[in-house]
Specification:
This protein is an alpha/beta fold. It has a domain of 82 residues. 35% of the residues lie in helices and 17% in strands. The strands form four sheets. Strands 2, 3, 4, 7, 8, 11, 12, 15, 16 and 19 form a ten-stranded mixed sheet that branches. A four-stranded antiparallel sheet has the order 10-9-18-17, with helices on one face. The longest helix is centred in the middle third of the chain and has 30 residues.
Length: 526
């Protein structure tokens, strides 16, 4: 694309987003050409890319992690910018349909969204937000049970979803009540506060969290956290909570069906947010040593938190143990020539621990070249990723990826990254035994105590392209390499099996009806 495609107004538009014309040109080139697919060799399985922890090892690693809290700064990183619109999609679809056709009958019973909506509405009292819904209805002279009995569903939906009532369809998912307790209800954000006390609290009783939020919702989330901190800051615990937004400079250009830059109806080039991979910038700004990453909607009530705490600490302890070994290697490599048996030991340990092979030319390199290679390989950010056995839940998973230099590495791969037209790639993807629940602990500092520049460890060739509709037209969007996919491609990585109980996401409202998210009163024993 020549420079003549861009006007002076376009360039000013880029500048306002913190982007240069060269960056936009590069993005445009990627979108016009086919984005390279990831070549998956085989799924990671137990003993072949995924390790397991026995109970005694878990105990030791827990103890190891707890001891580090006196010397290491730990934080929990929670992407929380998502709106609840996807969660309430079926209800919103039903609401709009019933308004459009002015019907109160079951004439849409064949529609899947309608079926899910009926299931939700018939169990409306089982949701933690039922009390709030009942209260807002009463203020308008309405009774929830009466509306359900007479199938006045659209009135329920209007007060649940729209600004007239609770406005949940336009709220951040972080602030939707998920769980009912004896004397209160908790949002996922509140559950994350409770969790953080258990495994980020240091010896000064400070629990640290960082939430990425949208600019539209930051004020509401901040106010809510301020209110909730006093409720959960028990036994002298205080919270250190920070926020950030996805940077404008991570937005990317879009193109139309004719491979030309997409402009809106006023002629302005459309730049769009480019996926959670953009959050590598936010993660990069943290100053802590150890960071736990967990999605906003993957929370459980207190009665099920024990396993989560146990494995979080175990993964943290494993990270510290591996770091200690890596740091000792780096100090040896720093000291000058390393004897051949020691180098061979390092190579074997790297392969067994990080599931990484060395390139063919390594065998013929000089001692100094091998030392330089291994130093470069060890001096990287470290991540320990929990992996859950695949059930009906499915998303990205752990795979052995084949690289152009004939080496292999273990990576978290989404289906959008593979060439689905190739039967063998589909077969490998579908044969996976585990999937990624986004249960990650990260080591963000090097052996000198300096923070890594995480942007240097991104594989830019793992971007993906998505299609969206804008002003009635189709556009293609470039998404940056996913935060735990290509954005961490060059990190040293270990996959560990964790119990399925530690993964209970809420993607749709019906997920809140699963037993794990339902209230169970505790009966005192005599």
């Amino acid at each position: 694309m020549s420079q003549s495609v861009f006007t002076q107004s376009d360039i000013q538009h880029f500048t306002l987003h913190g982007l240069t014309e060269d960056q936009i040109q590069a993005q445009f080139k990627i979108l016009k050409n086919d984005i390279p697919h990831v070549n998956i060799n085989r799924p990671c399985t137990i003993g072949d890319g995924i390790m397991t922890l026995d109970p005694s090892t878990i105990d030791k690693l827990e103890t190891k992690y707890v001891k580090t809290l006196s010397t290491r700064q730990t934080i929990k990183f929670v992407p929380a910018s998502g709106a609840a619109s996807r969660m309430f999609h079926a209800l919103m679809s039903t609401y709009n349909r019933r308004r459009q056709y002015s019907t109160t009958t079951d004439d849409a019973s064949h529609n899947q969204d309608y079926i899910q909506s009926r299931e939700c509405l018939n169990a409306i009292s089982d949701f933690a937000f039922a009390e709030d819904l009942t209260s807002i209805l009463l203020k308008h002279g309405l009774h929830l049970n009466t509306l359900v009995k007479h199938k006045r569903y659209n009135e329920i939906l209007e007060y649940l979803l729209m600004p007239k009532g609770l406005n949940y369809a336009h709220q951040p998912k972080a602030l939707i009540p998920f769980h009912r307790y004896t004397d209160h209800c908790r949002t996922p954000l509140a559950e994350h506060l409770v969790e953080a006390i258990e495994y980020t609290c240091n010896t000064r009783n400070i629990a640290s969290l960082h939430f990425t939020v949208s600019l539209d919702h930051e004020k509401a989330i901040s106010a809510y956290v301020t209110e909730m901190k006093s409720r959960y800051a028990r036994n002298g615990v205080t919270f250190n909570i920070s926020y950030s937004q996805q940077k404008l400079s991570t937005n990317t250009i879009t193109i139309d069906e004719n491979n030309q830059p997409f402009r809106d109806n006023t002629g302005v080039l459309v730049l769009r947010q480019s996926g959670h991979g953009s959050l590598i910038e936010n993660l990069n700004n943290l100053q802590e040593d150890i960071c736990f990453i967990k999605n906003i909607d993957n929370v459980v009530p207190d009665r099920l938190k024990y396993e989560t705490y146990r494995y979080k600490k175990a993964l943290g302890g494993l990270l510290v143990s591996v770091q200690e070994k890596v740091f000792s290697f780096l100090k040896q490599l720093d000291s000058g020539p390393v004897e051949e048996p020691v180098l061979i030991h390092m190579v074997k340990w790297r392969q067994q621990t990080f599931s990484l092979t060395v390139p063919d030319e390594f065998a013929n390199q000089s001692n100094s070249e091998r030392v330089t290679f291994l130093h470069h390989q060890f001096n990287r950010p470290l991540r320990i990723c929990g992996m859950v056995r695949k059930t009906k839940e499915f998303g990205g998973g752990p795979f052995w990826v084949q690289h152009n230099d004939r080496t292999q590495s273990i990576q978290i791969v989404e289906d959008a990254q593979i060439n689905t037209k190739l039967a063998n790639q589909q077969t490998v993807f579908k044969s996976s035994t585990h999937f990624n629940p986004v249960d990650i602990v990260c080591g963000l500092r090097d052996y000198h105590g300096n923070s890594f520049d995480l942007r240097k460890f991104v594989d830019p060739h793992t971007s993906i392209m998505t299609r969206k509709f804008y002003e009635g037209r189709t556009l293609r969007i470039l998404e940056h390499p996913g935060l735990w996919n290509g954005s961490m491609a060059y990190w040293n990585t270990i996959f560990v099996e964790v119990p399925s109980l530690t993964f209970n996401p809420v993607k749709t409202i019906l997920d809140l009806l699963r037993p794990e998210h339902q209230y169970r009163p505790v009966h005192l024993q005599n």
